[in-house]
Amino acid sequence: MLPIERRQQLLKWLKEVGSLSIAEISGRLHVSEMTVYRDIRPLLDEGQIIKTSGGISLAPVSQMSSNTCNYCLKELHNRHPFQIITNDLKVEQLCCPHCGLLRYKDIEKDVSQIICRDFLQNSTISAKMAYYLMDTDFNLNCCQPQVLTFESLKHAEQFQKGFGGVVMRFEEAIDEIQKRMNGAMGCLCKK
């Protein structure tokens, strides 16, 4: 399991049980306590968790940083963000379409809206209506496999002619991302 995956699992456990000791985390993840300390350092720095006398727990919502992706925990970049609005009107910020599609699939039943930005026009669009371009030679140094969003099929195909890749619709893009992420490689999000 990659460090990013361990951090995601850790946050999931903390949401379920409230707090965990370092020894418990080490046992659950089958890693050394030193690895646990290395894994939790970014979560502490980002204000997502706090140290307690017995280990760690989630930081109060008011202390959590809104500058990180809800999925991969990277700093948010404004070039191609995703937003998910839940039925209870909570807004989740995600760094890119890759993370947005994966997070959407995780909480699909709780989602009211999912919006993103057109890669060329930088306009806000419905993610369900967007066209997704995957596997381009254009590298944004974000999560892999990289996904770009376009409002129009024409723009997606024009970009594809110059930089390659495959154009997909919403459900196809989700299926493809999930298929790749469920392989042996795991999430290639770069911290």
Give the uncertain stretches in residue-range form.
184-191
Number of domains: 2
Question: How does the major sheet shape up?
Answer: 4 strands, antiparallel
Which strand order does the major sheet show? 5-4-6-7
Shape assignment: elongated
| Rg | 18 Å
End-to-end CA span:
15 Å
The pLDDT mean sits at 86
Strand content: 15-25%
The chain-level structural class is alpha+beta
Helix count equals 6
Query: What sequence of helices (H) and strands (E) makes up the elements?
Result: HEHHEEEEHEEEEHEH
Number of strands: 10
Give the helix proportion (percent range).
25-40%
Protein name: HTH deoR-type domain-containing protein
Domain HTH deoR-type: 3-58
Keywords: Transcription, Transcription regulation
InterPro entries: DeoR_HTH, N2O_reductase_NosL, WH-like_DNA-bd_sf, WH_DNA-bd_sf
